[in-house]
Amino acid sequence: MAVLVGKKAPSFRATAVVNGEEFEENFSLEQYLGKKHVLFFFYPMDFTFVCPTEIIAFQERMEEFERKNVAVVGCSTDTHFSHFAWLNTPQDQGGIQGVQYPLVADAAKTIATNYDVLAGHYDYNDAGETIFVGEPVAYRGLFLIDKEGIVRHQVVNDMPLGRSIDEALRMVDALQYFEVKGEVCPANWEEGKEAMQATKEGVSSYLANKSVSN
Q: For the Thioredoxin domain, which residue ranges apply (predicted)?
């Protein structure tokens, strides 16, 4: 699994469904450069079971992401027609109607491959024929990208393991706090808690204060 943290997020142009109903060709994360942080996440497939719980959970917290100036973008290896159909299926019928943020179509699997979250790979059998080993869908990858287009955080879950929206928001808070204050965020840091200077003295002061508060 590639570690993309500290590197430029792989660029792409693909069709996405935006606002739950519009096809946007040549959709790219580059539109957010210099303007917004981006939380770009992959999920395995449309019309499945764990995936809608995550996708809808992100939508339910969109006001918080927007308040923090973060664009949320989802992606799977389905077509944009599949995305459109799922987005227009009521939630009580297994759909994700009401989701407004962009869902990118990666039917060619190039985006998932470049982010190294594709759950398999192409190979050849004994007859020299091209085969796919594994599952041709994406793991649950999540990438927090800063305004310069640099990946600052990533996490990849296996397909049965749903992600925490609270943790995604916590990582946004930590990154933005560091960018503004220049202080680093220790274990279990949350917005409103004490951070520290990345020095020996800073660590000592933080641990001393923590000991007193306990």
A: 3-177
